[in-house]
Amino acid sequence: MNCVANENHSRSSTWCGIALPMFALCALVSVCQASSAETFPQDTTQALNMATFILSMEDSNGAIEDAPGAGTANNDSNMEYALIGLAAAYSYSHNASYLTGFEKGIAWLAARENMTDPTWRGSWYLQYSSTPPYKEIPVSGGPGTTNVRGVDATSALFVYLLYLDQRLTGSNALVQTYANHAHAALNFIINHNLDTDGLSWSSWLYYSAPKQWELYQEKYSADQGDVYLGMHAGALIYGSSTYASVADTLMTKTPVSIFNTSQKRYAIGMFANGTLDNSTDGYSEGFAQGYLSWMWGNTTQNQEGMTWFRSKVGSNGSIVTKSGAPAYSLNVAMLGLGDNGLAAAASVKSFAWLINKTYVPSNGGVYDSLQSGDTIEFDNVTGFCAASLFGFLPFD
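and the corresponding structure tokens:
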């Protein structure tokens, strides 16, 4: 999710309008009864509305626009994250429309995967047009670069989505249909992005001078999680010991290699010289704490990282991880996912802030933040918020 420096990351009426996972209901019911006579709804209406919003941006071929009017699809794996939200919605509701949209999205992604060029087989470009014929849209990944491809997260998440389909349906149909695509995707990472230490480099950038593709040498902490999801999923659905070994190494080494022991949080990443990227931008640092805790559970590093993350929660429930930065909706989603992974108490106050401030009741979208110019409804943020509210876990 971190291969370029343009990371993608709403309003409601009352606290008692928020819908939360069932394990959170009792905690918030008492708050609502103390502040309002309204009845707390025993469902997850807003989360379902978020999933419906994602469906509203999906075309007949399965392409999901990154945000209304964006004109792009799957920028930096956005669509894949949104599809996790649809999976969570179907898991909760068994509404067939969410499964249909989810599987259409997988088909669209498979059609974009490079399966012909031996060098790039199993990879995608950073982004595509959201309208037919869905051509790739070049985008700079930094100074001197004009395009990005071979993102580790994108290849890995495709396989994770296949696992989710099997989990949701009990059928191996898509797992078998796209087996060649899945193996190509994971093998691309192993052959082109995986370093000798077992961690994954982010992506490949095209430099205008010299005219060639070069590996972008930063190992983002959240990307290690993305690759873990894909490798562990691949091991489960295809019985591969190779994928299982890669996944185990990522789960073991990431908390050791990309964890800032003095700040007691995951760093954003690690540079080629082995030093940690301790920078903050207001959302990537929160993403790392919550995302990795969601999938790896109650470890020492995850406990410390989530403690750091919770220290950034304001009195109104909003979360600001960098001084001067806005309160991003993505931070609330990640706090909730991390709490789910640690089986901790739900982030009731932050969920309430999300529903009352950045959730858009008219269409089910979620604003990136309330900062001027940032009221954009990204599909990935909306998907993560839905998954968090549903209490969705990455694996059975």
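(Above: one complete record from the training split.) The chain has one domain: 15-390.
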